[in-house]
Every structure is written in C-alpha cells, then in structure tokens.
Amino acid sequence: MKKLVSLFVMLVLPLMASATNYQEGTHYTVVSAEATKKPEVREFFSFYCGHCFKFEPFMAGVKKQLPKGVKFEFNHVDFLRAASPVMQQMLTKAVIVAEQMGMDRKLMGAVFNYIHVQRAVFTSEKDIRNVFVLNGADGEKFDKLMKSFSVNSKAKLMKKKQDYYSKSGGLTGVPAVIVNGRYKIEAKELDQNDFEKDYNNLVKYLLTLK
C-alpha cells in the first residue's frame, strides 16, 4: 500500500507543480469578472489576419486535446482594416455556416487560402458562396443558412462578445484565446522548447478555474 501511495504522489506532484507555475499576469490575464457557466475555449480571429492563418493548424491540435465536455468556439471579428466591416461580418456568418455544415476546418481553410495564398479579394456574399461550392459545400444549403435565424443570431452573439472584450481591454488584437470567458492566454512566456505541450497544459489548467 505504501508503495502505491508513493507512486501516486510521484505521478501527481509534477502535475501540481506545473499547474502552480502558471501565473496571472504572466501566462494569462483575467479579462472578465465572471466566467462562463459551461467550460469553453473561444478563439478570436480574422480571416484577414496573417498570424491567424498560420495559427489555425496549431489551434486544430489544441481543439483535439480538449477534455470531454469542453466546447470550442470560433469567434470571427470585424475590426481589421483589410476589408469593410460589412464584408467581415459576412465572413463571420460564413464561419457559422461552415460549422453547421460540419465542414468548418475545410471551408475555413479554403477562405484563408483564398485570401493569403491566392491573394484574391472577397467583394460579396457570392464570392464566399463560390469558394464554399468549389470546396464541396451545397450552394442551396449555403443560401438558406446565410439567411437563417440561427446563423444570424450566432453572428450577433460573436459581435457582442467581440465588443465586450474590446471595451474591457481584453481583446486588443487577433489571434486571441479566452478560456471560460475569463482568462486570456498570454503565450509569450510559455516554454518555447515544448510550446504545444505547455500551451495545452495551460488551457487545461485554466479550464479548472472559475
């Protein structure tokens, strides 16, 4: 029994030590007085952001590592100067449509590619539709979803979240990741030699906080 207890302690202590090494103001910032009712990881990003484009494959890995029951939320923003707010808001809706089609990674990847690899310019909803259809989406379903109450409601919620954190000073640029609606990740101080592991550990640690 003593050996089992000793083994348990040896396994748990490193985990406790790594968790206590994450410090407010260094590894994360408190950006809201209240946490979300349910655990979530929310990524604020823009298709027009080059850093977001490079960050997406990494975030796909983070999403896969999330504990069961934790929701991952994309939150497209509309404050970059690369396009009009109207066009950016259309792309916000497109993110939600891609999710509801069950093709979020593929279609979002195609939009990123259109802007940053092909160097093409979105000028209308029709342009977005064409990219979706060329990448396997149903055009008629796209049209219906873009007009649907559920898509428009969620787009308004994304805008509300964006405005809330922008006004509070919690959202000053993208990409930005906020855990449980309260803790913004500060990635600069994470272990650069094992960044992915340290990042995932920080996310899991923040999910335990309220």
Detail the topology: elements first, then pairings.
Layout lengths: L1 H19 L7 E3 L9 E6 L4 H16 L5 E6 L8 H16 L3 H13 L8 H10 L4 H9 L1 H20 L7 E4 L3 E3 L9 H13 L3
Parallel strand pairs: 2-3
Antiparallel strand pairs: 1-5, 2-4, 4-5
What does this structure look like?
With 210 residues, the protein is an alpha+beta fold. It has a single domain, classed as Glutaredoxin (3-Layer(aba) Sandwich). Helix content is 55%, strand content 10%. It is built from 8 helices and 5 strands; from the N terminus they run H-E-E-H-E-H-H-H-H-H-E-E-H. The protein has helices at 2-20, 50-65, 85-100, 104-116, 125-134, 139-147, 149-168, 195-207; strands at 28-30, 40-45, 71-76, 176-179, 183-185. The protein has a 5-stranded mixed beta sheet with strand order 1-5-4-2-3, sandwiched between helices. Helix 2 (50-65) links the parallel strand 2 (40-45) and strand 3 (71-76). The longest helix has 20 residues, at 149-168. It is globular, with a radius of gyration of 19 Å. Residues 4-10 and 12-17 have low confidence and may be disordered.
Short description:
The protein has about 210 residues and is of the alpha+beta class. It is built from 8 helices and 5 strands.
